[in-house]
Design goal:
Length: 93
């Protein structure tokens, strides 16, 4: 939803919008994780390491792609990913 607001309402270009959205999600996830740890929840080590490493690797790959892609290509890829994620959520629920 924040992508829609930043691009459509505020008029930011997509590269700036994606960067801002990821920055905000980082703090949201960090806050959730810290609260989970504070109430005594602790993840298993192997899944945690796998998630962290895969996140870092895919974030690096995505940033390389986003910096080289044109605005039109980036718009289409982000749109396709959002449609696929939306369809996946609808199919699960």
């Amino acid at each position: 939803m924040i992508l829609l607001v930043l691009t459509s309402v505020l008029g930011y270009e997509l590269k700036t919008t994606v960067d801002t959205s990821v920055f905000i999600m980082t703090f949201t996830a960090l806050t959730g994780a810290l609260n989970h740890f504070a109430i005594g929840g602790m993840p298993e080590t192997l899944p945690l390491v796998i998630c962290v490493l895969s996140t870092l690797i895919w974030a690096w790959i995505a940033s390389r792609f986003a910096n080289k892609a044109s605005a039109i290509t980036l718009n289409r890829v982000v749109g396709a990913v959002l449609v696929i994620l939306g369809a996946a959520i609808l199919s699960v629920n």
